[in-house]
Amino acid sequence: MAISRRAESLDLGVTLAGEEARRPIGGYLRRWLPIWIGIVMALAMMVVAAAAPLIAPLSPSAQYSDAVLKGPGAVERHMLGTDEFGRDILSRIIWGARVSLQVGLASVMWGFLLGVPLGILAGTRGGKIETGIMRCADMLMAFPTLLLALIIVTALGGTLLNEILAIGIALTPNFVRLSRSLALTIREQDYIMAARALGSGQLRVMARHVFPNALYALVVVATLYIATAIRTEASLSFLGLGIPPPTPSWGNILSEGRQYIKCCPWITTFSGLAIMLAVLAFNLVGDALRDLLDPRLRGE
Amino acid sequence: MLKYALRRLVIAVPMLLGAMSIVFFAMRILPGDPCVAMMGDQATTEALADCTKNLGLHRPLTVQYVDYLWRSVQLDFGNSLRQGYPVSEYIARMFPHTLVLVMSSAVVAALIGIPIGIVSALKRRSPLIDYPLRIIALLGLSMPVFWLGILLLIVFSLHLDIFPLIGGGDLDGVIHMLKTGEAFANPGDFLAALGDVLHHLALPAFALGFTLAATVSRLSRSAMLEVISQDYIRTARAKGQGERTVVYKHAFRNMMVPLLTIIGLFVAVALTGTVLTETVFTRPGLGKMLVDAIGARDYPLAQGAITVFTMTIIFVNLVVDMLYAVVDPRITYR
Amino acid sequence: MLSPIRSRFALLSVATLALLLTFGLVALVEPPAADAQKKKVLNVAAKEPDTLDPHSSTLGQSQAISRFMFRGLVRFAIKDGKVTTSEVEPDLAESWTLSPDGTVWTFKLRKGVQFHKGFGEMTAEDVKFSFERQINKTPGTRYGVNLDVIKSIEVVNPHTVQIALKSFDAIFLLRMVGYQQGYIVSKKAAEKHDQFKWSPIGTGPFHFERHSPREKIVLKAFDKFQGGRPQIDEVHWFDVPEDATKLIGLEKGTFDLLYPEATTADFAAQVKKIGAILDQWGPGGQQRFYINMTHKPFDDIRVRRAFMHAIDRKAIKETMYPGELGLLAISCVPPGYFGHVPMSFPEYDPEKAKKLLAEAGHPNGFTIKNYFISKSFFYPKVLTLAQEQLKKVGINVELQVVEHATFHENIRKNLNPFVLYGGTRITDADPWLSLFFDSKEIPDPATGNKGTNFMHYRAIDDLLQKGRVERDTKKRAAIYAEAQKRIERDLVCLPIQDIPNQWARNPKRVSNPFDPNYGEFSLHYSYNYPEMLKVLN
Fold first, then answer.
1. Which residues of A190-223 are buried (b: 16+ CB within 10 A; e: fewer)?
2. For residue A249, what pLDDT is reported?
3. Closest residue by Cα to residue A96 from A219, A254, A221, A225
4. Shortest distance, CA B58 to any CA of chain C (angstroms)
5. How far away is chain C from the Cα of A163, in angstroms, using its nearest Cα?
6. CA–CA dist B108, B253 (Å, integer)
7. Which DSSP string do the residues of C64-103 spell out, in sequence order?
8. Of A52, B228, C240, C333, which is the most buried if we count CB atoms within 10 A?
9. Per mean pLDDT, which of A133-147, B52-66, C34-48, C172-186 is the most reliable?
10. What's this model's pTM, rounded to 2 decimal places?
């Protein structure tokens, strides 16, 4: 169907002014600066997450009953203050990076692994298979991502793995639709025709030609969905369906702190900032890469 | 065109049916017994058994399923298990609140997003203007709406005291006056009620709209970039058409397609956003009601609400697809 | 080249700005305050009740609002400016007598008591109906079990009703208090059960006016209330689930009374800071652990003792409810209940706990997988605190946070080896112990028994039997003291804290004749005498 393909290509923003291409030197910095900023931010967070046991000053679950709901610096031990159980916010945010990024990356990976093969299959094979896959995807698309994740988490129970699965499944239809429309475009390219003419099998065509060509666009969009996944995790926590205590995730810290937003705003502020920066980082990368995703530019 | 519309409608039916089935079975798979949820910790064993029977939950699943589908066709979603109200009546009360929230947040998102998108497209060669603007837009997307919401409440409702803290305003009154024609007989009263609704709407619409502005600005930026560099614009100019004609006839028409896409995307995203926004701003509405219904295992209410959700999304996408053809003759339907 | 387009967009930007301004201006127009000045309105922030049928709901907010609209035959006595929970005085009944054999109660009803909205005078028929609808388990009613002791109800004349019991019942008058099963409803109105849920008719000081779902419930003063028309004209009961929002509203003046989801340290501090008052009343809801003595490894009493040594009850209490906000629990029958005696429990001592665990064959502790805990109220908080304390002695608890309904279902399937539980009951040891310690109440998914004896305790059945038929108060007290001794011996119940029910009140807006600290007692969650609240200007 011509229409939905059109909509998706626009959603991707696969456009860029030709003018810009004509001024490559100034354009280079402009185009790559946000990407680098984003990448540096994201990498910094990943390093923090990986090195959490080394960096975090205290245990994220240790409860200091003598320092309940203390502000930043009120007790020297707690640089960013403590929460309702007397736990160190800084340590929780550092450890929380682990969980939040894990959820973000792993759930997108699930969505990718489930969605892309189906989408490419639909786009390359066409016919009844395509109709069937796309109807299912459309059906799931009719549920907003958060809602779908919410139902799945309620059903499975809120553990880290289930959370990842739920968000992953909720993201799947997006990947199906996107990779199908990419496959549709690629299918018409001359070299695919040539490969077919040379007698390559369907599977081979899909794996060797369609997938690599779609990969770039898919990765870009996946970056954006990491941001979505991190936000969805926070939203699920807000609705009380987060990862169970004492595991800290940014969403957990934020939603546990919202009750104390008036007396002790540091809990929500620092965790909110962490979420914001992470989402911003992945969005910056994805957004800027998306601008670069112009076929005319790639040819240069 | 008509044929295409009909075909899409026919396709929409199994989609809706599928979505409803998913909801039905998902609700039954969820752990937790609605009777225990309703009757609480003091219920006796017999009372729980009675409750199950009264709600018809002791029947085989297939019987319940067929019953549910058959009654849904007649737009009868049963009664809320928890509060006893007919589901259709309940949803009819909640839906307008959610609808005005989605619409007004669309307005806010457009008011923030489109100017940012356009300016950052035009100024794309001055990073000092372009980047800050894009980052502002991205901030909205990155900020958890419930965090932003509470901050807005503390500043604008508590300290500055210019917006109400809770509720959705007298929307019932507005609807009633519109229905009975009283709105025209008594414009003063009507405007007062409308003002009340807008007064309650301002903060939630801003919070939700701001989070969605990034998407809008991104799309309008790329659309703008495309438009100003298109060959046909140059051709039009070369033909000696006035700038006004060029912009309106060509640029605007082409902006419409991405705008429509935004609307299509927007509805699904915004409906999700209402869940959180309605919670933070204590507004009546469909989103929060649905989450509560799932929590309380209120099967009929959750089923009814999700059906309305999906119907809305399917319907809006259908309309958007239709409109593509109107604004962009290049798109044809097969 | 771009300038014309740019000017186009400058224009657009101006238009945008204009639109924004208009939007802001419209938002600023205050709606006309419709005669709010004249009316005395009480604004309450709580959750939305699930029903207004007083016999139907176990939710706190539903029970709290019931007391505004309904009354019972008797009520808690006011003594020395305080409301008690042990003595009753006439309310809808003028007087009563008990037959010599202790099984027939005769109530003489007050004359001229009117139901709301012209439903006429309350008569013996309404009393009979109110109890029988529950005994017969009319769909939706919840409290029939509390009236099981009744054999028959007879209308002697319109103002006399005779209630025959199956056997003597020491706490029958407490069952007749206007609370849960004790409320008298209009027979004419309640026969249509489905409609009664949202068009309740009682004899209380306020009558139901309207309900805007998910927004508010409006109650109005009942002119013909037998205690005299209340001073407050209207009660607006807002649906506000979030405590943070409630607090903002109290400070802003949107609300006068708050029913918090959880009274925490910061909540109390905030309330104090903005010059508001916490009204407390007891007996407190007790939060306690029940340990399943049939569940491995807790079938070993040494493990149960180790568990108790590992829990720092004081730290939990002081973290969650510092100072006066709560009391450290001292018995498995809370203070304020008839029959309560203080008990002693293994003191906090992680070293001892480790030693005991080692003796019991768990030198490295053990892990409890899939421990279910409700995501609501105090449950996740107590468990988060206990989890960390248990970890220190080697007991790892892997939590699964679930909906409240799922939690209740799962603990009745014996999925948790120890169960955190909270709440209040009729203030007497008999109903309390019968619900939680009687072997008849052992939950069993095989038989469908959904009782609440999560310990699978069987050691006081005989005492409970004896206590139910004992008419001598002193002997009854001795029986329950013995029961508590056995519970202490068997180490199956560890009470953590007794938390009074507390609401926040803006004293500049609303006055309450009773002392904020336990001046008033109430069984569940709210003002016992809402008609005595006054709205000040």
1. eebeebeeeebeeeebbeebbbebbeebbebbbb
2. 92
3. A254
4. 14
5. 12
6. 22
7. HHHHHH--BSEEEEEETTEEEEEEEEESSEEEEEE-TTS-
8. C333
9. C172-186
10. 0.86
A161 contacts in chain C (CB < 8 Å):
none
B vs C, Cβ pairs < 8 A, gives 180
Which of B27, B128, B138, B208 best tests the A interface by mutation, with the highest count of A CBs <10 A? B138
Decide if B47 touches C, using CB distance below 8 A.
yes
Distance from the Cα of residue C36 to its chain's centroid: 32
Reported as a single tens digit per residue, the pLDDT across C109-163 is 999 999 999 999 999 999 999 999 999 888 778 888 889 899 999 999 999 999 9
Residue of A nearest to B131 (CA): A34
Token representation of residue C409: 């279902």
Distance CA C507, CA C36 (A): 19
Q: Which residues of C touch B198 (CB under 8 A)?
A: 23, 26-27
CB C284 within 8 A of CB C326: yes
- Per CB-CB distance under 8 Å, the chain B contacts of A242 are none
Q: Confirm or reject contact between A156 and chain B (CB < 8 A).
A: no
The answer to whether A240 touches C375, Cβ cutoff 8 Å, is yes
C200/A170 Cα distance (integer angstroms): 44
Provide, as residue numbers in chain C, all residues whose Cβ is less than 8 Å from the Cβ of A262. Answer: 244, 247-248, 266, 270
pLDDT score recorded for residue C30: 47
ipTM of the complex: 0.84
Six-digit token string for C124: 């013996």
Q: Which residues contact C147 (CB under 8 A, 6 or more apart)?
A: C131, C134, C135, C175, C181
SS (H, E, C) B147-161: HHHHHHHHHHHHHCC
Q: Is C14 exposed, middle or buried (0-12, 13-18, 19+ CB in 10 A)?
A: exposed
Cα C331 to chain centroid, rounded: 19
Type of residue at A15? T
3-state secondary structure of C115: coil
Measured in residues, chain A has a length of 300
What are the angstrom distances between the C-alpha of B185 and each of B182, B190, C30, C227? Answer: 5, 9, 22, 45
Mean predicted confidence (pLDDT) in B72-88:
85
Q: Which chains touch B (3 or more CB pairs under 8 A)?
A: A, C
For residue C392, the distance in angstroms to the closest alpha carbon of chain B comes to: 32
First to last CA, chain A: 31
Instruction: For residue A133, give both structure tokens.
Output: 């896959």
Contact yes or no for C248 and B165 at CB 8 A? yes
Rounded to the nearest 10 degrees, the angle between the axes of helix A145-156 and helix B2-29 is 20
What's the rounded Cα separation, in Å, for the pair C466 and C4? 97
Q: Is B39 on the interface with A (CB under 8 A)?
A: no
Contact C213 B90 (CB under 8 A): yes
Tokens of C314: 């004081």
| Partner residue opposite A85 with nearest CB, options C385, C401, C403 | C385
Q: Which of B126, B133, B147 would you mutate first to test chain A, the one with the most A CBs within 10 A?
A: B147
The shortest C-alpha distance from A113 to chain B (Å) reads 22
Q: CA of B75 to nearest chain A CA: how many angstroms apart? A: 19
- Chain A positions contacting chain C at CB under 8 Å are 61-63, 65, 68-69, 84-86, 154, 157-159, 240-242, 244-246, 258-264
CA B316 to chain centre: 10
What span, in angstroms and rounded, lies between the C-alpha atoms of B150 and B157?
A: 10
Query: How many residues in total does chain B contain?
Result: 334
3-state secondary structure C229-249: CCCCCEEEEEECCCHHHHHHH
